Amino acid sequence: MSVIPISLNQLQPLSPEQHREWCAQLEAGDILYFPQTPIAIPEIDLQFLLGQQQTDSSLHKNIAYKPNIDRLSGVDTKTADAEAVAKLQGIMRKYSKSVTEFLTGFLEPYKANWQLDYASFRPQEEEGRDLPQRRRNDLLHTDAFPTRPTYGARILRFFNNIHPARTRDWVVSDPFAAIVKQFAPSEIAPRVDSALSRAAKSLGRGIGLDAAIPSIKRSPYDDFMMRFHNFLKENPDFQANCPKHSFNFPSGSSWMVYTDTVPHAVLAGQYALEQTFLVCPEALVRPEISPLKVLESIAGASLV
Ligand code: SIN
Ligand code: FE
User: Fold this and answer.
1) What is the pLDDT of residues 224-265, one digit of tens each?
2) Whose CA is nearest to atom 6 of ligand 1?
């Protein structure tokens, strides 16, 4: 995997092949990196976002924005200042719209077949956060949503480091197809009878997984992806011995990556914005290397 820098003057004009090439690079596990963000965020909005840690408002926690219903979640409306909440909501609405507009052009092959998911504001210092093991983001992991199965759609995330000075420090590892075979070989061996769901269960056996996952209708694919997320975070051998590449994304930069397949961890940094997209299997330019296809070929059965 590699980090592919893209400068703003590379963005116009673009050939159809170039759009497909960027999609293909993302799908192969590369990070597309914009040293200078292509997303315009007004200075006044940045100042508001950066001011949140200093105030008492409850807006200092990581906050999700749901663009489809125009709502913030993670805000304690009892203690939050209504005016500040409205302001944050307006900023997130604009951010979400700008990223969507940009990527609709940049990743043109996806645009008819993706779903706009949540955006987030991440004002907390990432170094030394005290979180339960499965929620720690400083351990390498692939992303999966505990309450929102994707049925094979892929999780694409776009980030902005809006800290005025500091880098956001990531470590990433080799993508899914390599690690799924290397780090969980016996558990995920192809099984004709059970598809992958039984194999997925064995990944979580003995670590009290079932109690932690709300009973939501998931496909065997989602089940595996959720368990694999936990398995990686709870696997000291993987954490210690997997290949690691460090990238410190500077202030004012953006990057995007398929976080469902590129193991990633954030070690330090503060103040980021992020927008997630769910890219449907039909939109992928290299479906054969998608996690769904990789797992289905291991299982020898359909998983959604
Ligand atoms: C994560 O998705 O694990 C966290 C990434 C970040 O906030 O930089
Ligand atoms: Fe993550």
Assistant:
1) 899 899 999 999 999 999 999 999 999 999 999 999 999 999
2) 266
Angle at 53 between CA 52 and CA 56, to 5 degrees: 80
Residue 27: per-residue pLDDT: 97
Q: Is the CB of 272 under 6 A from ligand 1?
A: yes
Ligand sitting nearest the alpha carbon of 142: 2
In which order are the strands placed within the sheet that holds 245-249?
245-249, 168-172, 264-268
Kindly identify the ligand whose nearest atom is closest to the C-alpha of 229.
2
* Atom 5 of ligand 1, nearest CA residue: 266
Note the pTM of the prediction, 2 decimals: 0.90
Sign of CA dihedral 126, 127, 131, 137: positive
pLDDT for the residue numbered 208: 40
Name the closest-CA residue to atom 7, ligand 1. Answer: 266
- Percent of the chain having pLDDT more than 90? 66
* pLDDT value at residue 53: 66
- Ligand 1 site, residue 103, Cβ cutoff 6 A: no
Output the CATH code of domain 3-299.
2.60.120
